[in-house]
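Checklist before submission:
- one chain only
- standard amino acids only
- sequence pasted in full

Submission:
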Amino acid sequence: MPPVAHLNITVADLDRSQAFYERWFGFDQRPETYSDGTRFIRNADGFDLALHPGQPPSPPAPTVHFGFRTADADEVRALLRELRAADAPITETHDEPGYVSLKCLDPDGYEIEIYCE
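Returned file contents:
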């Protein structure tokens, strides 16, 4: 089975969301806007994040989040320091042997996780 290749989320402000995902998660590869206004942004791994203009659910479902796995626990720790310095909303952190993670909220309240295990 091939890996998941894209995720579609509804966002209130395309430019604001694109800037957030570019800054924190590296989605800066070939942005493309479709005729319905949906903007696809891509990361270096080829994952497409589709930002659909509209009113996102408020609040998003409490158990729904999406995440990025990294092979380097220090990458998670460095991102956590940067997010905290920028006063980004952090919802959860773990730093244990074999598992380091953080969860934060994007501008529309979607929860994003980055982790290493």
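Reviewer check: The helical segments are 14-25, 73-85.
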